[in-house]
Prior knowledge:
- The protein is an alpha+beta fold.
- Strand 3 and strand 4 form a beta hairpin.
- Helix 3 packs parallel to helix 9 (219-228), helix 15 packs antiparallel against helix 23 (617-633) and helix 16 (389-398) packs across helix 19.
- The longest helix has 43 residues, at 15-57.
- The chain is elongated.
Amino acid sequence: MIGNGGTGPVVMPGADSEHRKPRKQRSRTARYTRRVVFALLGLIATGVLGFVIVYLLTPIPNAQSAALAAGSTFYYSDGKTVIAHMGTNRKILASIDQVPVPVRQAVIAAENRTFYSDPGVSLQGSARAIWSTVSGGQVQGGSTITQQMVRNYYNGLSQEKSVFRKFKEVMISMKVGNEKTKDWILLQYLNTIYFGRDAFGIEAAAHAYFNVSAKNLTPSQGAYLAAAIQQPSLFGIAAKTDMPVIETRWKYVVNGMVTTKAITQAQADAMKFAAPVRQSQSSTYGGANGYMVFNAINELKNKRGYTDGQISSLGLKVVTTFDKDLMAAAKSSVESLLPSGLSPKVMTGLVSVNPSNGEVVAFYGGKDYLKDEVSSSFGAQAQAGSGFKPYALAAALENGMSLSDTVDGSSPVTVNGKNLSNDNGDQFGQVNLVKMTQDSINTAYIRLGQQIGEDKIQGIAELLGIPTAQLTANGANTAATFPLGVADVSVVQQAGAYAAFANDGVFHAPHVIKYVSDSAGGHKVTISEPGVRAFSKQTARDATYAMTKVVSSGTGQNAQLDDGRPQAGKTGTTSGGAALWFNGYVPQMSTSVGMFRSDSTVKSFTVPGYSSYGGSLSAIIWKSYMTKAIALKNYPATSFGAPSSYTGSYNSANTPTPNPTPTATPTAVHTATHTPIPTHVPTHVPTPVPTQVPSPTVTPALKQQQPVANRSLSAG
Length: 716
């Protein structure tokens, strides 16, 4: 035995290494396992960190304009009665409270039953959609209400099928779900979703399907609209053959409301299917609607600074000045009195203006906008004829003349070598301003223009809203016949100009909009036209006094109102009856009626059963309409302001005609029964000079006019 000095037993070589070898192998496996776990945890942490970073760096985009696009709605002057909608058929609701709770619950039951509890996304549905795209399949559904809202509402989220777009949608949906209330999300969804029948949003859909506002929808109707979201075309058409499919989907929504405990099973069993109303096929712009809407649009664009894009997408509430009852009265008076044999080329326009503010309260622009877009009251123009003479009268009064001053009314008058005559060669001696207006004496007005200067007449006409370009076209303002109305005007221009006489000389430009407000009603712009003094109060009253004689004993007797109230006006006729006018007013309303050809020929026209003078059918239409309008508005019989003197008129022998004693102002308004009016023309109507008359011009592209030298004289 070999000793070791007491240090312990001797270990044989190799024994220890064999004993430790298994432990080394187990340590290496654990080490690898730990590495894999750490790597996986690192990847997860990196993914989570990356997700958090992406989440934090993903901004919520701005709302896209298309999502907020809402067409403008045009109303009558009451601000309640709709004329028409234009642009995107959507009305933005400002509060979720405007949608009944059962209707909201129906939408949730149809589209996303966990809406109020989920984080805003369907992880399973989104993962399935992403995998389908990666694997070459189609992006599938499964989107929540929040995801649908985000896709429709925000910029940068198109409908393209890509993983990136879907991932971005998920990120924004989660962020919106975290930062916005569920009610806010649901409201935006209901405002943006398409329901069919050209209806975007729940409010437009309620009107399109059931003729009610969203706030008045029943639970059954709400279930129908909720069911329509997935198949808007099918539900919009609602064909008889498709009704079984439609009712099955409707029942699915109702049963879903039971599942979500929105209603009880008993309530579901009692609910009856809500069939939609038949979709209207009538045009929005048929009849007078098109004239009203597009007159308002023209004003919005040309005078109020709005663009086409704003009108079609901002959801404006445009309240016009048009009185619905007066519009109906205008249509009735014109269409009931026009004879059946009248040429279709003859246009008839009527415009009624409030003198105190220039609001166009009613007009007649034609039978149907869809058949003729040119409005006879706003778009077309014709020679003013003798309806222009009051402007010359006002110019004379403004420049120092008085009603008692006289002018030679003999015929003919020679100007620049041309002889100009009165109608029928009628001879008048010295006539004062009242007489020459009452009987519309051409030669007296020609001499008056030469005496005071036609530039003075032009100045008054411009202050009364007649554009310089119309007054100077083809040298009209320099012609001797300028006071006789050789310049072209529109019916609305005449009504606005005469309104200034009724308003003691203060002119308000005619306009057709009362106010404009945004879709939420928070911003309102009231429209007004400032008063411009065209001439003095006394000039207005003196000219009005002369024009009362036109109606009481002159060329406009067919316009006399049966209740005897004070009224004033002036006839207008061009040679051969190519344009026939009556322009008149009571203190509360100015109305002009014009009849003229719509084409470019120089032919005059005849009116079956009536004479071709402004004092005939035009005056009769004026009387018919004004009788109705006065009764509708209950206007009291009010006197005009007193003239500077109650001047008598002078006949051809220079003998004063006694002035009748002014009658007392009536104290009540009576609607008289319309009686037939003779078609003869009052005496002392000037004879038209046998020259040709141009047709009315049509804006915006004016037709070529003849030189003024070839244009007609006035004929009363």
